[in-house]
Structures are given as structure tokens and as C-alpha cells.
Amino acid sequence: MSEPNHQHNEISDSQFNRPGSEVELQLRRINEKLQRLLKQRENLLRENSRLKEELQQHEQKHKDQTSRLEQLQQQVQILKASKNEMNEAEKKILDKRLSQYIRDIDHCIALLGE
After folding, report:
1. Domain residue spans of the chain
2. d(CA 103, CA 97)
3. How far apart are CA 54 and CA 59, in angstroms?
């Protein structure tokens, strides 16, 4: 048996350096794809950064609105208490909240006294 001819599988320097060769075209296409992918990656990184910042702003806005809602709910409780319009469940909730505030104040006073 004769040895197979390996000349078809090997790329000679002359084939590689020849203008318009198949290998050169493939390398050019690969390079173009790589450049497109790098641009796409850069765009995605910028968009990701922008979206993270936007998310952070929305989270802060949500936190602020939640805090404002709690303040308004407390004001409603106070107004109801001042007009004596609270039912028993609401009175218990207000009493619990006031008791917790008093405990917190007592704790702070104890810490200051140390």
C-alpha cells in the first residue's frame, strides 16, 4: 500500500499568502465576525450598566414610596384616634405600636445613661 498524499490537507505558505486565497477570505470573515461580536459585547455592557442604574433608581423610588405610604397610614391612624373613630382591632394595633415606641425610647434612654 502506498502512503496517502498529505499535500491536499496541508496549507503551504504560498497558498496562505496568496491574495484572495480561501484561507485569507476565511480569516477576513472570522475577523469581521469577531469585530461585530466585540461591538455587540460593548453595546450589551453599556446597556447592562444603564439598566442596573435604572433598576437602582426604581428600587430607591419604591423604597421612598413605601416609606411615604407607612407615614400616611400612621397619620390616618392618628386622625382616627383623635376623632375616636377607631374600631377595637385598630385600637389594639395603635396600642401595640405606641407600646413599641415607648420600649424603643426607654432602650435609647438606657443606652444614653451608660
Report:
1. 13-83, 86-114
2. 10
3. 9
